[in-house]
Structures are given as structure tokens and as C-alpha cells.
């Protein structure tokens, strides 16, 4: 995964590569192979994971050229999200013990001091550890700030299932929530710092990292409320809004694609953006472009630009029609192992397209906009902008062609997968021979998630629906301060006091989601909220009684938060 000098590489000799060229046949044979390949790489009992602690995912059993016998937080979290999705939707009920091993192993890694720091001084940004769960102390591209976001997403999915399935709250509150909160606090406090990207090469801002951080804080805010932590939730919401705002800045409107890294001096056309779209898919959000949903016009335009950038750089793509599926890799400028297609990048293109088909089918229509027109023209050169309902012939012909295009990407991987179904990291751009790390766990996970999307499977949304991009971006992820609001208010039985105001932490003036104050010292009502430091915040208290909302009289209340520490604001209901 890491850029390193290409050493002479004996091409792996394998006798019969090329699986059956049909997508259906490939899914049938590769599904069990990928699942078995994935499980073999998880300790303590995985057949290729000897020496790995329980719940630790090895990236690959390869120990030289390259040595990937380590555990990465990013890879492990994506792998376990796949397993947790299978478990929580009833597809595989045997996985609970392994998932519990994972949550325990990751909680241990969080507390393991490492070159990025201790648990409270930045250590959560450490990208990789030894497989016995000790710190890796060699030189590396660190920190990588997507890991805590992806890990919290996996854990929240599992925690929500436990809560919904009669586990009671104590296990989730006492065991999972502390781990989840550490990761989310890290994201909340550090998202606006530079990071190494998911390929561990560029230290700047990275679209994938920003997108998965946004998702984590959004679902983290909802989860914090579920476990009775509304003021923690409001802090997450504040930074989720800032992340959503920042996410927009990666879009290159002139050229119609996402510039995946702000540094690095590359074109920015990168599998990074496709992986971001599939790992933040929320079918409830429709084709929302602000969160780059798979069927959004921006994500489709980006997909075309990204795919096309590989048509001329890999020999195995020679002679393939300009509108057919081709082999794709991380980014066209890649030189790692000479720069080749990656199985997981090919699967990701297919998955984005299957996700798009799921959403169009659900909403009963698809939109062709000026932004996505070039994407759709690949399938029908005469198509024009407009909304096509699912009972129209244009909808039928476009969606059939897009499904065939998506299947084409599976067929590319099928062609270069050996007959035993083993998936390495890459395949050679000229010969198609598998190369680099053998049995890459992430390759297997990417096959399983693409196949699930092909079969129409979706998972719980994470709150991408109905979001509005704030009109002003605030890049200041910290510092924050803790502010206690006390208000003297007499109430009648059944009536409660809430607060809302002009920041995400105060629910942006929403009476529906306003924060409930505690009446423990009635007639004083109180709440402590995390707010941005040195900021003017406007707010009002409201009364709610049986759904009836009464606002305080004008004007709005206002405070200027301190630069650090905490503050108390004493008010009397007006
Ligand atoms: C809740 O789930 C956890 C994780 O599987 C398990 O260890 C614990 O015993 C369960 N508790 C209850 C009350 O079911
Ligand atoms: C990454 O970039 C930031 C901002 O330019 C810089 O402060 C930091 O030292 C860099 N980190 C590494 C490891 O190069
Ligand atoms: C921090 O946020 C601001 C405003 O959104 C943005 O301009 C800046 O690039 C961000 N910096 C990093 C390193 O993400
Ligand atoms: C209070 O703030 C809201 C939201 O910004 C605004 O619409 C309203 O006019 C303000 N009220 C007064 C009296 O300024
Ligand atoms: C607010 O009220 C609390 C409790 O009555 C009191 O301890 C505190 O000194 C007051 N703070 C301010 C800033 O008035």
C-alpha cells in the first residue's frame, strides 16, 4: 500500500487464471472464496493469521515484497463493517464472537501508546500496529485520520443492533460507548488538521478522510443522543456541519470531478473519491450531491472522469471501447509496483453503480443534469437533461445499460482472478498477472460489498438525508468550551424547558430538536453544552407542553463564549 521502490518482482506463476467471464458466474464462485479468504486473515484462528491476537485483522499474510503482516485501523474497520453488516442483517449469525473479539482488540489498540501519541495526545491517528497488538515504531506516514472515523462507524452499527435486540443498555454504555466516544472526540477535535491519505503517501487534506469523518460525526451525534449524551451530540453536530461544508471544496466544477487530495501535485483523479461515495452511501438520502451519494450528478460525473483516466495507461485496456468497463487502479500517476490496477478499485466502481441503481429504483426515477450528462451519454448519446420516471423507456434503457456497465467491471476482475478465487492487491497492467500482496483482506471485503450491492442489499442510513450545507464554512475544529446555561423558569406539570440557537450545537434554531434542560434544581433549569470558543452565539429558551411550543419573547439572547475553559450563563425566562 505504501509507496516504495519497486524491487524485482517475480510474477506469481499461476496456471489457470481467468474465471468464467460472466458476472453471475463470478459472483457465485467468488462470494464463498472471498468470505473464506477474509476470515482466514483474522486472529486468533484464521488459517493465514497465525500470531494475530483475537479480533486482529492482518492486511495480508505476505511477509516480503511487500511485508503487509500488520494490522491497519482503516482496513480492519472496513473489513469488520462488512462482517457487522452481514451479522446485523441476519445474513451470517455466526459472527458475533468474532465481532466481540474485534471490539475488544480495537479498544486495546486505542490505549496502546505509539509514535503518534497516547490515547489522549493523538495516538488514535496511528495507522498501523503489529499483529500482536503492540505499537509499530518504524517510520511511516502518520497520522492517518480516517481510521477512528471508520472504526466508530463499524462499532455504532453493532451497538445499534445490540440495543435493538434486547441486549439492554449497560454493555453498550459501559463497553462500546467509551471506545466510540474516544474515536468521535478525536475526529471532532482533529478533522481540520492535515492527514496522510488512505494510500499513505500524501500529507494534506483528503476527500475520503473528510467524507468518512463527516459520516462518523453525523451518525455519532445520533448515537450519542441514543445513549443519553445530548450535549456531546451537539458538539459532534457542530463539526459535522463544518465537515459537510469543507467536503464541498474538493469539487472541481470546471472539470467535473473530485480533487481527491489538496496536496501531492497530482491530477486528483483517484479511487479515493469512489471509495468515499460507496462508504458513505445512505439510500435514504436519494441522489444528494452535497454528500456525494453514488447516484448524485457530481459522483457520476466524477466516476466517468476517474474511469476514463485509466483507459490509456494500462496495456490490458487497449482495444476496449471508450464506453465499456476497463481495469482501474488507485490513480493514473501511480508508480507503486510500477502502477497497476487494483481489484478493490475495480470493485468500487461496480459498487457505486449498483448503489445508484438501488436508489433510482427506490425513488422511481432518475435525473440527468448538465453535470451528469456526459456520464449518461456513454449509454445513450441522444439523452438530454431531464427527469426520467421508471415507467419510461429511457429509464429502462439507461438502467439496463448501466447495470451491464457495472457488471463489466466485475468481469474485468473475473478475468484476472485465479481459479481458486484468491485476490491479491493488484494485477499487472500489461499481463493481468496478480501481484503485490497476496490475499489482501481489503480486496476480499470489497468483493463482498460489491456483490451485496449488486443483489440490492442496503443497510441502515446514517443521517445523510435532508442535510443543508452551511452557508459559511468554519474550519476551526477546536478549540471548544463547555458552557452551562441556567434559566429560572416556573412551569406547569408536563411542561419542559429547552434551548436552541444559531449553531449546530444548539440545533440551528430547530424547536423539534432543541435540547432539553434538566430540572434537577427546579425552578432552575440547566444544561451544559460544548460550543466553539470565542464565538458569538445567539439562543432562546422554549417551553414545550404536549407538542405545543412557546418561544421566549424577543430579542434573541446572546453570549460570547470564552477562548478556553468553561462558562456559566444565568438567565431568567422572558
Ligand atoms: C450483550 O452483548 C455482549 C456482546 O455480545 C455480551 O458480551 C453480553 O453478555 C450481552 N449482554 C446481555 C445482557 O445480553
Ligand atoms: C504534514 O503537513 C503539516 C502541514 O503542512 C505539517 O505541519 C506536518 O509537519 C506534516 N507532517 C509530516 C509528517 O510531514
Ligand atoms: C480547515 O478548514 C478550512 C475551512 O473549511 C479549510 O479551508 C482548510 O483547508 C481546512 N484545513 C485542513 C488541513 O483540512
Ligand atoms: C433571532 O434569530 C432568528 C434566527 O436567526 C431570526 O430569524 C430572528 O429575526 C432573530 N430575532 C430578533 C428579534 O432579532
Ligand atoms: C450563576 O448561578 C450560579 C448558581 O446560582 C452561581 O454559582 C454562579 O456564580 C452564577 N454565575 C454568574 C456568572 O452569574
Automatic annotation (TrEMBL):
Protein keywords: Carbohydrate metabolism, Glycoprotein, Glycosidase, Hydrolase, Polysaccharide degradation, Signal
Region of interest (Disordered), ranges: 550-574
Biological process terms in GO annotation: polysaccharide catabolic process
GO molecular function per UniProt: glucan 1,4-alpha-glucosidase activity; starch binding
EC numbers, comma separated: 3.2.1.3
Protein family (similarity comment): Belongs to the glycosyl hydrolase 15 family.
Protein's name according to its UniProt entry: Glucoamylase
Origin species: Ganoderma sinense ZZ0214-1
